[in-house]
Amino acid sequence: MSNQRDQWSSSLGFVLAAAGSAVGLGNLWKFPYITWDNQGGGFVLVYLACILLVGMPVMMAEIVIGRFTQESPVPAFEKAAKSLPLEKFWPIVGWLGVISGLVILSFYAVVAGWSISSFYYCLKWTFSGYSPDDLKFGDFVGNGPLQLGLTLAFSTITAFIVTRGIAGGIEKATKVLMPVLLSILVLLTLNSFTLDGAGKAIAFIFTPSPMKHAEQGILEALGHAFFTLSLGMGAMITYGSYMGKKESIVKASVAIVLLDTVIALMASFIMFTILFSFPSVIENMGKSTAGMLFVTLPAMFYTEMPFGNIIAPIFYILVGFAALSSTISLLEVVVSLFIDKMKWSRLKATGTAAGTIFLFSILCALSNGGSEWLTNFKLFGQADSGFFYTLNKMFFADKAGFMNAFDHLSANWLLPVGGFFITLFVGWVFPAKSTAAELGMLDASGNPTNAFKAIQFSLRFIAPLAIGYIILKIFLGADFT
Ligand code: PFF
C-alpha cells in the first residue's frame, strides 16, 4: 500500500500544504473573536506560550509518526506501536482523531459556507454600492435553508477535490493560494496602520491584561493552539505520511508554526483596528462576536480602503480557499482511514465520509437560529445548577446550540486529549533513536544531539504535564453538587 502513496514534490510543497491545513478559519475567524471575548493581551500571551511549548513539539511528533510509518493515523499507530508497551491502546488515539475530524468538519463547513455568501454580497456592493443593512448577521445565520445550501455547496467542493487525490491537486493549489493570501493580509495590515484605532488594537493584543475566567481561558488558549495548528487528530500524521525522507521535519514545523501565528496576529490586528476605529460596527455583529470576520471587514473595505471594492470580493475568495485547504485535510483524515482499513476505493470512501459528516453538518447549520430546538440544545439539559449543569459547563462551557457545543468539545477536549496521548507515545514509548533519526538529530556516532534532548524533554514533560494539569484543574474545579 505504501508504495502507491503520493508524495509532496518538494519540501516547500509539504510546508505550504501543511500550512494550508493549519491556516484557515481558525486564524481568520476564530482567533480574533476568542481573543476579543477573552479580553486580549493576557489570553494572547498564554496562547503564544501554548504554541511554542506544546504546539511545536506536538507538530514534530505527529509528522515523525506519519513519515516514519507512511500510513494514515490508525494504521500508523498500529505500525509504530508494534511490540511496544500498550500496543493495542495506541491505535485508539488514531480513532479518536477520526472522530475529532468528523466533529470539526461538521461545523467548520457551515462557517466555510459563509465565505461564499460574503463573496456574493461583496460582488453586489462593488457593483451597486455598499449597504451594510443588506447583511444582518443574526438574520443571515438564522436562515435555515440558506445555511443548509451554503454548507452543502462547500462540502461538495471539498469532497470533489478529495476524490481526486490530494498531493498533486492541493500542493499545486496551495503553492499559489498561500502567497496570495499572505500578500493580501500584508496589504490590509499596512492599511490598518492608517486608521485611528491601530494603536488601541496593538495595545489590546499585546498588553497582558488579566482574563475574566482564567482557567477556561487557559484551556481555550491551549485548545486553540491545537485547533489552529491542525494538531491532536492526526491531520499532520496523514500529511507527514506523504513526506519524502530527505526533507527536514524540524525546519518544516518551524515554518508552519510561524506562518500560522503571524497570520492569526495580523487578522486580529486588522479586525480590532476596525472595531476601535468604528465602534458602530460592533452593533452589526449581532449578539455573537463570531461574526467579526464577516461583518467588520466589509466596513473597512467599502468605507476606508483605497481599492477596497476590488479587494473585498478577492479577499473572501481567499477566505474560502484558506478554509478549503483545511476542510480537505480534515476530510482526508477520515477518507484515508476508510481506504487503508476497509480497502475502499477513494470515491466510495470520500462519498461515505462526506455524506455522514454532512448529516452532522445539518444539525450545526440549523443551530444558529434556523431551528429553535437545535439553537438551544444542551447535551445535559437546561438546568442552571447541579450535576448536569456542571457537565454542560465543563465540556461545553455551558454554550447552547449544536454548533457551539461541537466547536467547544472538539477544540477544548478532543484535540488536547489526542495531543496528550500523541506526546506520551512519542516521548515515552516510541524509540528515541527513531524519533531523533526522523528529526535528523543524530550526531556522527549515532547518538541523539542536545537539541533533540530539548525537544524530547518537551515531549516527555512540558507538553503532557501542561495539558494534563489544565484538564485536571477543570475536573477538580467542577462543582457537581
Ligand atoms: N487548522 C485549521 C484552522 O485553523 O482553521 C482547522 C483544522 C484543520 C483543525 C485540520 C484540525 C485539522 F485537522
From TrEMBL:
Coiled coil: none annotated. The chain crosses the membrane at residues 12-31, 43-68, 89-111, 146-167, 179-206, 221-242, 254-278, 310-339, 351-370, 413-431, 457-476. The keyword Transmembrane helix applies. It comes from the Bacteria. Signal peptide: none annotated. It holds the Pfam family SNF. GO terms for cellular component: membrane. Its main location: membrane. It is found in: Membrane. It is a multi-pass membrane protein. NCBIfam families: Na_transp. This is Sodium-dependent transporter. The lineage of its organism: Bacteria, Pseudomonadati, Acidobacteriota, Holophagae, Acanthopleuribacterales.
